[in-house]
């Protein structure tokens, strides 16, 4: 428990050396990167009527240009109740959270800190994470926090509503790519993981990061980033912020969608910066294939003029390589590049 930032940081004006990132990695003045005004905010309610075609066009265009977009009127009714529960969890005394703390990276439900493996990191990230597997929910829910009261009921329902939102988005993306509406059902979107991130106020935000620059390995990420700025993405070598919008979800195209779309959609590198005065709590739902699911460019999208750009392999194999390459986007791209025989 002593490694959790929220367990030891008491408002000191400086932070331990291990949290000061090396030059070239630290955010510096880019911590205050301009918020992107071009990133689309898409009204999903219009997809239920005559505006469906326009909504699909907006989603595909944003996924090709940015790898990100935001959605409003998404139908998730438990958003604020669930975020309230997540904030209360991290505000509870350490004693009420310690049973969930673990440094074992193989433990399914766990409370931990920094990055993938605190014990082996060269430097640390300014965040604590509550990881909650959500597939199948009935199996994992009894392992979720029992405090605050109703956490399991409210956050569990929220995860299910958010999962339905993901299915709806994948159906729209399928249609936009010219695939069957049910293309992403079953094994291609079988696995869901919830991450609740807590970024305490940071005394030196130009030196530290909440999350390093990376691209997500899964299929689709749905993030509620609360009301405190912190999410940034990269486009053409430039860094841009994503504005926190009340009731909006940030949608992130992840690696498997880039592969399946044969590069028509892109996954963009992004990171989380810290705030000097305000804590930031975010909720992310990661939708991914099952580990034995075979992923490659969709046959419908491979033609003589658009040959395959990526190898076909299992998602489990992709994850092993992704972790071994420390999430480095260019190296992952090279590792899964299709080579004709």
From TrEMBL:
Residues 190-289 form the Fe2OG dioxygenase domain. One of its GO terms (molecular function) is metal ion binding. It holds the Pfam family 2OG-FeII_Oxy. InterPro entries: DIOX_N, IPNS-like_FE2OG_OXY, IPNS-like_sf, Oxoglu/Fe-dep_dioxygenase_dom, Plant_2OG-oxidoreductases. The lineage of its organism: Eukaryota, Viridiplantae, Streptophyta, Embryophyta, Tracheophyta. Keywords: Iron, Metal-binding, Oxidoreductase. This is Fe2OG dioxygenase domain-containing protein. It comes from Kalanchoe fedtschenkoi. It comes from the Eukaryota.
